[in-house]
């Protein structure tokens, strides 16, 4: 297994990117309960109160920690520096080591915070974590061809379009084509 350089934490001009901690419960619950109605087909709705309990949060933290220990999946909260509010998540997922040294990048800014450039800023930080701290060689993002804002984010952080993967993901009970964007170290 690769040597992981800790801490898995990154500050940008306006943001802090880090794993969630137990003291983040109130911030997490508020973030997931205060979303506006979905703005597009990739957006998420506010969670039901039954999903936002302290017990569910503890289970979520345990699951995230297990995935980090397995060097398989790194989930980071995106926090604003000025007020500490959780505004989204960025993930390095399905990490493959060996001859591949690859991860998939996923990101979500909660819809009350759209339009401020937070996705680009957070994803740039995640790419630095991927290449410096996790010593990955390649990071990919799979994006629906109609998701123009996400494509704009991928291009802004230096990912290049590699092609179209037909019927790659099953979303809303139907198989969808996904464009692959990637960057190597």
Q: Uncertain segments of ≥5 residues (pLDDT<50)?
A: none
Whole-number tally of structural domains: 1
Identify the CATH class.
Alpha Beta
Reported CATH architecture: 3-Layer(aba) Sandwich
The 3D shape can be described as globular
Helix content, binned percent: 25-40%
Can you put this structure into words, describing what you see?
The chain has a single domain (10-184), classed as Gcn5-related N-acetyltransferase (GNAT) (Aminopeptidase). An 8-stranded mixed β-sheet has the order 1-2-3-4-5-6-8-7, sandwiched between helices. The protein has helices at 25-33, 54-69, 118-133, 148-156; strands at 10-11, 15-18, 74-80, 86-96, 102-109, 138-143, 160-171, 174-184. The mean pLDDT is 92. The protein has 4 helices and 8 strands. The protein has 185 residues and is of the alpha+beta class. Belongs to the acetyltransferase family. RimJ subfamily.
């Amino acid at each position: 297994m690769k040597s992981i350089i800790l801490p898995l934490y990154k500050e940008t001009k306006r943001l802090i990117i880090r794993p969630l901690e137990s003291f983040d419960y109130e911030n997490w619950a508020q973030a997931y309960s205060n979303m506006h109605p979905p703005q597009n087909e990739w957006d998420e709705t506010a969670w039901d109160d039954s999903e936002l309990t302290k017990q569910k949060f503890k289970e979520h933290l345990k699951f995230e920690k297990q995935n980090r220990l397995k060097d398989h999946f790194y989930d980071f909260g995106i926090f604003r520096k000025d007020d500490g509010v959780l505004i989204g998540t960025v993930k390095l997922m399905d990490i493959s080591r060996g001859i591949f040294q690859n991860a998939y990048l996923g990101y979500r800014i909660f819809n009350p915070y759209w339009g401020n450039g937070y996705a680009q800023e957070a994803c740039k930080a995640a790419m630095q974590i991927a290449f410096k701290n996790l010593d990955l060689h390649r990071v990919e993002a799979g994006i629906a061809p109609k998701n123009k804002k996400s494509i704009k984010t991928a291009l802004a952080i230096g990912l290049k379009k590699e092609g179209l993967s037909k019927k790659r993901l099953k979303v809303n009970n139907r198989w969808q084509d996904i464009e692959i964007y990637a960057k190597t170290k």
